[in-house]
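Hi C.,

You asked whether I'd gotten around to modeling the 439-residue construct. I have! Everything is below, sequence then structure, no commentary in between.
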Amino acid sequence: MSSTIKDIDSGQTNDKLAVLIPGLGAVGTTLIAGVIAARKGLARPIGSLTQYAPIDDDPDAPRVCDALPIAAFDNIAFGGWDIFEENCFEAAREAGVLSDDDLAPLREELSAIEPMSAVFDPDFVRNIDGPNVKEASTKMELATALMDDIEGFQKEHHCSRAVAVWCGSTEVHVEMQKVHMSLEAFEAGLRDNHDAISPTMIYAYAHLKSGVPFINGAPNSAVDCPALIELAEKEGVCIAGKDFKTGQTLLKTVLAPGLSARLLGVSGWYSTNILGNRDGAVLDDPGSFKTKEQSKLSVLHSSLDAPRHPELYEDLTHKVRIDYYPPRGDNKEGWDNIDIFGWMDYPMQIKINFLCRDSILAAPVALDVALLADVAQQQGDSGVLDWLSFYFKSPQVSDGELPVHDLFVQRDMLFEKLRSWYTSEQQVEPTPQMAAGAE
């Protein structure tokens, strides 16, 4: 756990949480704007389980945010890195997720959040580039610069602890190599500029070395590589990922368990998306799309319980497509064609057209995983937080375990963990939480 940072001027210990975001683009700025708006009573944090869900089924049960030592909105300081120099107000306007009317009353607070220079490598993200990038002779020096940023931010904003949530771009697919297999090999690779160490991995390494939990919101390989798992366990730091479960995949993990529960067969599931934001531009590169495709394809086998019912699901054809379509912006549209069969093998079809808002769905997920990872760190947890599977397309699990994709089973896993803290003898007294907009 990161050490307590004291106010140099007053000598007083502060209890603020730093939420550090590599990638202050559409998702990151939407998250920050929503929290600031909730502080002002201008918006509600809808979609956030930590802010709305009761801790258990008792009609009088407190909300998660009131039952556990979760950081109040007033006690969060946001910061992060980006390859573009615009402050968060300008970046939010550029992203086009939120209207000018909604951003106007948040301008002062958002404008004050300026991105730190980023670690970036065009070999891993090919369709965008920007000027706000760190320069160093080795990847280890880049990691050290990030550690300096983390320490400096906590001191400047009087934060006693921090958590990081990757909201940056999808990188090209990275096959695990010897350099990823041990911490010793990884650190040697950082010093030697090994070309299989990605920017996400450098950010993860820097945060874990700083005692800061790292949550991977993209499908990039990072804290799921053995070297960084070893580091997390060595340093006693929490990790989780990967790839936020938001639009089309969210619906899959709702529908597939229902079809399986009724023992209806599925012969094919075709999914296609159009997306026009910066993420869509990045995914227009085949290398980045391969990383995303693997994440999106992983959910059906488990959700349908295919091993138990091979006669219903073993011949399933699952296809996923994403097309970059600039006019759509952040308002992603997903189509699904599901070919199912029932009694006497008679075929049927299900058609879905989900007109969603990508960052609106992702922001509460990013908020929840940040707040819950912080609580886990406070409770002394470390390593892989597999009980956060509810929030991810490709949930990272402990060694030897199989990922669970059924949304409802994932939710049970999540709340079993939260209730264990609530009922434990070590449970601290509940603290009043920021409830603006959540009543």
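If it helps when you're writing up: The two ends are 33 Å apart (CA to CA).

Thanks,
B.
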